[in-house]
Automatic annotation (TrEMBL):
Domain of life: Bacteria
Segments passing through the bilayer: none
UniProt keyword list: ATP-binding, Disulfide bond, Kinase, Nucleotide-binding, Rhamnose metabolism, Transferase
Its EC number(s): 2.7.1.-
Family indicated by similarity: Belongs to the FGGY kinase family.
Name listed for the protein in its UniProt record: Rhamnulokinase family protein
SUPFAM superfamilies for the chain: Actin-like ATPase domain
Ranges where the Carbohydrate kinase FGGY C-terminal domain occurs: 256-443
Domain Carbohydrate kinase FGGY N-terminal: 8-245
Species per Swiss-Prot/TrEMBL record: Streptomyces gottesmaniae
């Protein structure tokens, strides 16, 4: 049968990549065309994304993708982290550098919003977790600025890059669901919330859904990349986590997933949102996935904790660090890896040590000990999220799928299996890019429904299974210790 080439642009918080997915009726192969750093910049204004360098990386990547396939790709799709955006003026020009979600401008903003729309009502209407960086809070923080006064349009990061590639504007739904302005039941804007907070929904371009066409690469882009046109851009699950969940190689319905990388996003795929007060208290989010599904999950700080330590330690060899961590006794000290106190960059080894000291636990002294503390804490947070999601959604599981960069960390995968008391299936590592490719392939008629996309992954991607080991009681005790019980 025919094999098509789909370019998947996948932008993460620390690097971007352009992958080429070659897909046929019974084959799926992913090749990396280009990888480039994503280096946020601290300007006098605050922490900003260098979006021009990201766009340059995308163009270089598309060129490299073309070079792999004789100057041709059949379609392009873009996904990135969520919530962040660029503001455009009336001429369609970008106003300023997009603000990083770890910037401090949203400190104290949520409380002001809740004075108008109480947190419980906001959750009932939008199903979104509280995170200081939800687009809603960012907009409220920005709205008295001179820049905002000139803003006529808001484009989320993948939509902004799509606009630069094609000249066409839209708001992709899975990513829009992270703004806190979408109702997960209607999968449309929550006009009531927007009205009460004085947010003009006219700022947003019309909604589009994964699979929708998003225009053709502009002639200048074809020239810059050497691609032969026409090349369509296809809307994918433009929130990276939506693309990653689409590529969870599950074989049934009774599964939990953990998308690992800078964050750990741990939860379930559901047919309908869970908007109960208990769910709000547990800070689970109802983001939208492919085909109207709900990504019911919790944000856990993830490997960000380790990345920030590694940066502070001057980039030691990661393999050595993990071998050292494996030799440290388990569960000596744990921190709450769901705590947004760890959100901002800087001083991470010290902040972890302080958290251990304040909770009366041994303070990790060496990088290996700190690394062990982080991995134990992540596994414990994975355990809690998987258990609580099942209870809150009344949706039991028998397997936990780990996808994303953390699948390369065998210790983390084994600890997660041990902590959850469930088998873990690890892989694929490049889940977001694969989900991106598969949605493009589906839009072009190459694969069928979600289940057949997943079957194709099971047949073609290397997966590693971890059986739970050790004493489950140790994890229960650590959980109780952390909860102060
Ligand atoms: C993961 C992710 C998470 C989102 C966070 C901030 O890359 O997209 O899903 O909560 O980044 O956008």
């Amino acid at each position: 049968g025919s094999v098509k080439s789909y370019a998947a642009v996948d932008l993460g918080a620390s690097s971007g990549r352009v992958m080429v997915g070659r897909a046929g009726r019974d084959s799926l192969e992913l090749v990396e065309a280009h990888r480039f750093p994503n280096r946020p910049v601290r300007t006098p204004e605050g922490l900003r994304w260098d979006v021009l360098s990201l766009y340059a990386g995308v163009l270089d990547g598309l060129k490299a993708a073309g070079a792999l396939g004789g100057g041709r790709v059949d379609s392009v799709g873009i996904d990135s982290w969520a919530v962040d955006h660029g503001l455009l003026d009336a001429d369609g020009a970008l106003l300023g550098n997009p603000v990083h979600y770890r910037d401090t401008r949203t400190e104290g903003v949520a409380e002001k919003v809740w004075a108008t729309v109480p947190a419980a009502e906001l959750y009932a209407a939008t199903g979104l977790q509280y995170a200081p960086f939800n687009t809603l809070y960012q907009l409220i923080a920005a709205r008295s600025s001179a820049q905002f006064a000139h803003a006529e349009r808001l484009l989320l990061i993948p939509d902004l890059l799509t606009y630069w590639l094609t000249g066409e504007q839209g708001t992709e739904l899975t990513n829009a669901s992270t703004t806190q302005l979408i109702d997960p039941r209607t999968r449309d804007w929550s006009r009531d919330v927007a009205d009460r907070l004085g947010i003009d929904l006219g700022l947003f371009a019309p909604l589009r859904r994964p699979g929708d066409p998003a225009g053709l690469l502009r002639p200048e882009v074809l020239e810059a990349t050497g691609l032969s046109g026409p090349v369509p851009v296809t809307t994918v699950g433009s929130h990276d986590t939506a693309s990653a969940v689409a590529a969870v190689p599950a074989t049934g319905e009774r599964f939990a997933y953990i998308c690992t990388g800078t964050w750990s996003l741990a939860g379930l795929e559901l047919g309908a949102p869970v908007l109960t007060e208990a769910s709000r208290a547990a800070n689970f989010t109802n983001e939208l996935g492919l085909d109207g599904t709900v990504r019911y999950l919790r944000n856990i700080m993830g490997l960000w904790l380790l990345q920030e330590c590694v940066r502070a330690w001057g980039d030691p060899d990661l393999g050595e660090l993990l071998r050292g961590a494996a030799a440290v006794p388990a569960l000596r000290s744990v921190v709450d890896a769901g705590d947004s106190a760890f959100l901002a960059p800087g001083r991470m080894p010290e902040r972890i040590a302080e958290a251990c000291r304040e909770s009366g636990q041994p303070v990790p002294r060496t990088p290996a000990e700190t690394t062990r503390c982080i991995l134990d804490s992540l596994a414990l947070a994975h355990r809690r999220a998987v258990a609580e999601a099942q209870a809150l959604a009344d949706h039991p599981v028998d397997v936990v799928h780990i996808v994303g960069g953390g699948t390369r960390n065998a210790l983390l995968c084994q600890l997660t299996a041990d902590a959850c008391g469930l088998p873990v299936v690890a892989g694929p590592a490049e889940a977001a890019a694969l989900g991106n490719v598969l949605v493009q392939a589906r839009a072009h008629g190459l694969v069928g429904d979600r289940a057949s996309m997943r079957r194709l992954l099971v047949r073609t991607q290397p997966l590693v299974r971890y059986e739970p080991q050790g004493d489950p009681e140790a994890w229960r005790a650590a959980e109780a210790r952390l909860a102060g019980r």
